[in-house]
Specification:
Strand content: 25-35%
Radius of gyration: 23 Å
Strand order of the largest sheet: 3-6-2-1-9-11-12-10
Bound molecules: adenosine-5'-diphosphate, aspartic acid, magnesium ion
Number of strands: 18
Number of helices: 12
Helix content: 25-40%
Length: 406
């Protein structure tokens, strides 16, 4: 029998009614002649509540215990989903990540999958069961529970689809597919029929949370095409796969935004070998994740270096940068939160020019000041004031003609 892997996100299993809706869809898929593996997330809001709860008993809970705690969210959903399927008269069995054979490394809260050995899933499928697998979690070889980073149920689904060579992998969520921009920010955003792995990867890693970026990376590596679609209707979604390179490639496929960013500028950094290394080694040792880095041209033997990070990382810095700046003989350190990043993404940029000019032009005409710019082969990103991010997204969306035809 052909095998279908379906993943249902938090909103899709957000209350008992919705879990029953998922159960009905899953049973229908089995009755249509498929073997079905279902990956579910925690009910919406549960993971966030568990994180809050942990902070109420400890300022710095250990990552290991966080994983034991967070894994309970998905464990609740697998049992409830299996029960709901039983109530419809079909066979279902719930499996934790460990039981499903998801083996990870030991980096708690952001573990990487090292192996998938879905022996139990295969056995239960052969016995006619629908397998309900807890997303977002795995187990180390030593038997410790791990989690795969926020949004990690997407990764569980892709990894299981790859391991079982599923015919279809379907990611069900609360929107109809991948849009040209978050439809909650740009109301006339258009659903895409297809998107290339690289494009979705860039969009996901620059703020479009419709798919976890690591799951897209995994899908590309193991060539697992998948469909993103809604659990609330039967509309066709967005097919994610490798798109052949060609002249007809769309230049700009979509726009991502990332709020809550912060910027640090170190002025008058002596322009000599080794200073950038001193700054960024100190940041790396403190596990601060840096995003965009800009160094100005030096005319007077000194330069300014600016870099951005997630707003929550700024708090981790403490006096670290001020100390390094003093040690290397730099000037002032300016820290600024309340900024955001807008990224314009498309594989067509590999062979087309003029995207940057069009982006800067539309933002300039709309009164949006660009603080920093960064580019990659298929992306142009700008750092702007957070208060202007929605305006900027709408301006860029219109300038690149991405809106739905009315
Ligand atoms: P799930 O709980 O199903 O995993 P998520 O909340 O993680 O769902 O992801 C779906 C959300 O992603 C949508 O509700 C939407 O607001 C947001 N989103 C951001 N960018 C996009 C985009 N380009 N296309 C579709 N949805 C997007
Ligand atoms: N429940 C986890 C989270 O909220 C994993 C997921 O939803 O994919 O991040
Ligand atoms: Mg998600």
């Amino acid at each position: 029998m052909p095998l279908v892997v379906q993943k249902y996100g938090g909103t899709s299993v957000g209350n008992p009614e919705r879990i029953l809706n998922v159960a009905r869809r899953v049973v229908e898929t089995q009755r249509a002649g498929n073997s079905v593996v279902v990956v579910v997330s925690a009910m919406s809001g549960v993971t966030d509540s568990l994180i809050k709860l942990a902070r109420q008993v400890s300022e710095r809970p250990t990552d290991r215990e966080m994983d034991v705690l967070l894994a309970t969210g998905e464990q609740t959903t697998i049992a409830l989903t299996a029960m709901a399927i039983h109530s419809l008269g079909a066979k279902a069995i719930s499996l934790t990540g460990a039981q499903a054979g998801i083996i990870t490394d030991g980096i708690h809260t952001k573990a990487k999958i090292s192996n998938v050995t879905p022996r139990q899933i295969r056995k239960h499928l052969n016995e006619g069961y629908i397998c309900i697998v807890a997303g977002f979690q795995g187990q180390t070889l030593q038997g410790h529970i791990t989690t795969l980073g926020r949004g990690g149920s997407d990764l569980t689904a892709i990894a299981i689809a790859a391991a079982l060579k599923a015919k279809n992998c379907e990611i069900y969520t609360d929107v109809d597919g991948v849009y040209t921009c978050d439809p909650r920010v740009v109301p006339d955003a258009r659903k895409l029929d297809t998107i290339d792995y690289d494009e979705l990867l860039e969009m996901a890693s620059s703020g479009s949370k419709v798919m976890q970026s690591r799951s897209v990376e995994f899908a590309k590596k193991f060539q697992v095409p998948f469909e993103v679609r809604s659990s609330f209707n039967n509309n066709r979604g967005t097919i994610v796969k490798e798109e052949p390179l060609g002249l007809e490639n769309v230049v700009v496929r979509g726009i991502s935004i990332e709020r809550n960013q912060a910027k640090v500028t170190i002025t008058n950094v002596p322009d000599k070998p080794g200073t950038a290394s001193r700054i960024f080694t100190a940041l790396a040792e403190a596990n601060v994740i840096i995003d965009v880095i800009v160094q100005n041209v030096s005319v007077s033997g000194a330069t300014d270096i600016s870099f951005t990070m997630n707003g929550d990382e700024l708090a981790k810095l403490g006096g670290l940068i001020d100390n390094v700046a003093r040690e290397i003989g730099a000037g002032e350190v300016i820290k600024k939160s309340g900024i955001a990043k807008l990224s314009v993404v498309g594989i067509g940029m590999r062979s087309h020019s003029g995207v940057a000019a069009k982006l800067f032009d539309c933002l300039g005409n709309g009164g949006v000041n660009i603080q920093m710019i960064s580019t990659s082969e298929i992306k142009i990103a700008v750092i702007i004031d957070e208060t202007q991010i929605e305006t900027a997204a709408k301006l860029a969306h219109a300038a690149f003609g991405l809106a739905a035809a009315s």
